[in-house]
Amino acid sequence: MRNIVTIARKELQGYFASPIAYVVLGFFALLYGYFFYTLLWYFDRQSMQVAPGSGMTMNVNQMLIGPVFMNVSVIVLFIMPMITMRTYAEEKRSGTIELLLTSPLTDWQIILGKFLGALLLYTVMLSVTLIHVGTLFYFGDPEWKPVATGYLGLLLMGGCFISAGLLISSLTKNQIVAGMVTFAVFLLLWVINWIGQSLGPTGQAIVTHLSITDHLDDFARGIIDTKHLVYYASFIVFGLFLTAKSVDSERWRG
């Protein structure tokens, strides 16, 4: 466990030693702030149109926080390749991959350490949103359970993106190629349910189940369904398993 933490700390320091972490955090804060302000403005306008005594209520979780979480998933789609593209590609480009593979570390310790380091940066990125959500709790009275499950869903979805990004980065030594291919794969996993609209009921159900963002909907509504947990956990484990196989083949080629 200590070796995994050491690798994770090294990865996190590497992100902040380069412009990557600052660009990612700044870009995310800018886009998230825009979406949050736009949805808050719309929610405020809608609430002012509700006539007093009409019996209609404005649910801040359903009309503001839920859509904000879904917008975060779209932002993550564009930003996550910037986080994962360097994990192995930079090691190969700089020639440090040989030192890493010949060190007294197992492949799984290296992979889990890199995964944890990227996940920690992603967690720091999500922590930016706590300022806005905290403001809603200060001035309003939203339900905390949908907020907690929404963050859980975002963390699990981010873990899936990171595991896939690690695999793709381990297959090339060019960061740009790794980033572009990772974004293409993420985009496919995001829009794959659109393809299901032209298929039959069975095919549509299968394709919809493969969509990585569709599983986030229930989390944003405060629902923790076992099938979503199994999907995200299976995706992460399978991605890390394929990464281990890719790293093992690199060791044999070396």
What does the model show?
It contains twelve helices and no strands. With 254 residues, the protein is mainly α. It has one domain. α6 crosses α12. The longest helix has 30 residues. The chain is globular, with a radius of gyration of 20 Å. The model has no long low-confidence stretch (mean pLDDT 82).
Number of domains: 1
Mean pLDDT: 82
Query: Approximately how much helix is present in the residues?
Result: over 70%
Major β-sheet profile: none
What is the element string, with H for helices and E for strands?
HHHHHHHHHHHH
Number of helices: 12
Structural Rg: 20 Å
Which structural class matches the secondary elements?
A: mainly alpha
- Low-confidence region ranges: none
Main features:
254 residues; mainly alpha; 12 helices
Q: In a few lines, what is going on in this structure?
A:
It contains twelve helices and no strands. It is an all-alpha fold and 254 residues long.
What is the strand and helix layout of this fold?
Layout: H1 2-17, H2 19-48, H3 60-84, H4 89-94, H5 97-101, H6 107-127, H7 129-139, H8 144-169, H9 175-195, H10 201-210, H11 216-220, H12 226-253
Helix pairs in contact: 1-6, 2-3, 3-8, 3-9, 6-8, 6-12, 8-9, 8-12, 9-10
